[in-house]
Amino acid sequence: MSLDRELQQALKEEQVESALALLEAGAKPSQKAFEQAARLAEVELLRAFYRPKARLKAGPALAELLLPSRRVPAGQAPPGNWSRVNGLFMVPQPEERILACTRFLLEKGADLNAVGELGTPLMQAASQGLVEVVRLLLQAGADANIQVGDSTALSLAVLFQFRAVEEILRGVSAADATPVAKPPERVAGPPLPRPRLPQTPEFLEAVAELERLLGAGFQTKDELCGGVEFAIPSAGVNTLELQRRYRSRGAFVFESQRRDKFLVVLPTRDWSAALAVMHTSAGNYGMSSGDIASWMKNLETTQPFELEHISHSTLSGRFLTPIADPARLAEEMYRFCPDIVDQGCGSVARLARELDKPNARLFFWWD
């Protein structure tokens, strides 16, 4: 393996000492590697990239630096509700390290007001609650009034409830800046009525066909309102493909989960009937199954979707068309289900980035 590829691997595995040694041994300081290094928030590593004649752009590296997370084994993670990826926790980088690297990149000419996928550097710092980094960027001349989508640095500080950052930004933001905030406490509306779903001959034929296809028997349960339940085979199934195949025949197929995964088949074409059957609700956020169904139906008018998984506190699926305005939808989804950010991806900007990808998925989980 070449030194350059070894350097990329060392940075990917967050091996700072190995990366420094490889640079000393002659590994090429490429722009991609430089941006990877910025995520590690090690100022000495960034300095090591700046050799004579090195053509490196500080701006993209600053954008990567302000995604402040590092991979930590479970036993070494500090207290906190961190996201877990492949057995490792993604925990915040210490702000003092981010601050030192930000100073260095500013010295190298990083554009303070460049707008990237997640907004300006100031917006990124505000969304992470990096008080001293926000102060440094403002002192260096960052524009607090740049708006990306419906967001500004101030609105993001308010959204994530970083009061110290909010106070700083209110002193420099335009008077008419409108922050995006969490919604007020809701009072749950009436739940969806329990449906009566008669088993039609067409539905029974679909169930019999599924029984042969899955090689497993089904269970009939009173709480499924006329539906049936299959244990999902260990090899798995393509739930959405089955849903498309049988929905036109009066059978709505979706995944559910209690302790194990199941395929539920209801005698209906209407996904909202599945929400009623599964009692999908968010009691800790003041939303009944009726409130959730109403929000989802409104979403469907502009961003059609398929629901793959429906259970008491979880909905997931995929969007059928590209997202017209990822930033706006991310904010709306956060208001609807704060847990997908607060206990999930970590920021509305990251959620917007995921929504901007082809074949974007939707996921709601109320803890």
Describe it for me?
The protein is of the alpha+beta class and 367 residues long. It has four domains: 1-111, Alpha Horseshoe (Serine Threonine Protein Phosphatase 5, Tetratricopeptide repeat); 118-181, Serine Threonine Protein Phosphatase 5, Tetratricopeptide repeat (Alpha Horseshoe); 201-267; 283-365, no CATH class. The chain contains 17 helices and ten strands. The chain has helices spanning 3-12, 16-24, 31-38, 43-49, 58-65, 95-107, 121-128, 131-139, 153-159, 163-170, 201-214, 239-247, 271-277, 289-302, 326-336, 339-345, 348-355, and strands spanning 69-73, 83-85, 88-92, 218-220, 228-231, 252-257, 261-266, 305-310, 314-319, 361-365. The strands form three sheets. The chain has a four-stranded antiparallel β-sheet. Strand 6 (252-257) and strand 7 (261-266) form a beta hairpin. Helix 3 (31-38) runs parallel beside helix 5, helix 5 (58-65) packs antiparallel against helix 6 (95-107) and helix 15 (326-336) crosses helix 17 (348-355). The longest helix is centred in the middle third of the chain and has 14 residues, at 201-214. The two termini are 46 Å apart. Mean pLDDT is 82; it is low at 175-181.
